[in-house]
Each structure stands twice: as C-alpha cells, then as structure tokens.
Amino acid sequence: MSRAAAVAMVLLLCGLCAPLQARTVYRCVQKGTVSLATAPEPGSRCTAMTVDDNAVQAPNLWGNFGVFSGTLYEREQDGRKVYSTRNLPGSTPYLRFTVATPPGEPAHAGLGRVGTPQLDRHARQFRAAAKATGVDDAWLRAVAHAESAFDEKAISPKGAQGVMQLMPETASEYGVTDPLSPAQSINGGARYMQSLLRRYNGDRTLAAAAYNAGIGVVTRYGGVPPYAETRQYVDKVLALYSAYRQAMGNGPERPAQ
C-alpha cells in the first residue's frame, strides 16, 4: 500500500485507542500477511508500536509484508471492543476504504466515460465475438466502452492497446497479432473475458475486477481489490452493462458463460 494510506490507517487506529498522548498499535503477522490492530491478535505474532500524538509523521508499521484487506473490522476481545484490518472469527466490518494502486500494478480507471450507449461502434465485430464465445454482446460493449470508448487506436499509459485495451502479454496469449485491429482486439478480449467468467462461475463483478487489475490481484485479495481505480472501473462497467442491455432491447440479464 502507499505510504500515505499506511499513515492514514495508523492514525485511524490510533483514534480508536484510548485518548492518551501516546497510543499503542500492534503490527501482527500471520501466515505471511500483516495487519494492524488495537490489541494483539490471537494466532498472530504481534509487535507493539507506540505512536506519539505529537509526532510529525506516523511510523511505517507495514514494512514489506502481505497485502491490505481494504476493511477495518470490529470484534470483542477480553470484554472490550478491538479493531483490526484482519477478518478474525467474530469480526464484523466497521469501515471500508480504498487505497491508491501500488506502482507496477495494471489496475486502471479506464479511458472511456459513462455516457450514452454507442451501438454503431464496431457492431459487426461485437456480434461475431459474442456468437463465437457466448459472452453477452452488451457485456463486451460495456467493457470496451469503459476501456477505450471504442477507440481502436487507444494506448493507455500502462501499455494497454486497442478497443479492448489488451496488455501485450494478454494479446499474445489470445493470438492477437495486431492489437489496433478492432476485429482482433474484440475477439481476443471476448475470449479473455470468456475465460474470466468461467473462472469466477459467471460472477461479472470478479471478472471485471480481474480484467482491470489482473487475476493474481483478485486472488491475493480474495475478491475485488481495495484499489480506488478498480472499484470505480467495476462500477462503471456494471452501469454501462445495464445501459447497453436496455439500449439493445434485451430482456432479463443472461447468465454469464
């Protein structure tokens, strides 16, 4: 996670501790992942860190371990309320938050904006890709709209290309030799999305998150990662999907392939 996000979480946890001039936050490691807590976590190896209210900068309690859960949990421990970024038995979500995408991650906000459906853009190619893969035409259009606004010449700052904004390694995996060809990009993107929907048993939210941030990141977080870019992207695609289904005169949502 970013330094700024780490500092913010330390300050939040400190605010949940007793109102003293110096507060204690615990950095707890369990199975290779790190969490922050207001009390030592059962089953974790925890190190206490005293945070001075008057300190100019909060200490970095995260080090190089693990990943950020994106949720602060509340539970009772030894007769009092304690808070942790790890979901332990008996915990309930207290606060959800997002963090900046770490450097090097592929997560992105997308190049297209939510707007009026554009049914005339590459319509023949989308129909062909939907028929070949079984992926809903409206879903493919929603992804393309969010990714590139249907611009076949689009190139993102992170190196994604074409209508479906395929990264070079993904394009190569799905046989796309010209990523700026609308037909190749849409076909490759449809085949990639087909594999994601199968992986996630038709869960469009997870498929969109993996298309945006990568399968490994979704696996690491056990769901949609807490990156602001990815969550905004998923919301955008789902909103566009509903708009495209309505614009195309479709009935109830088709089960994902």
From TrEMBL:
Q: Name one GO molecular function term.
A: lyase activity
Q: What is its EC number?
A: 4.2.2.n1
Q: Where is the Transglycosylase SLT domain?
A: 126-223
- Keywords associated with the record: Lyase, Signal
Q: Which Pfam families does the UniProt entry name for this protein? A: SLT (PF01464)
- InterPro entries according to UniProt: Lysozyme-like_dom_sf, Transglycosylase_SLT_dom_1
Q: Where is the signal peptide?
A: 1-22
What family is this? Answer: Belongs to the transglycosylase Slt family.
UniProt protein name: Lytic transglycosylase domain-containing protein
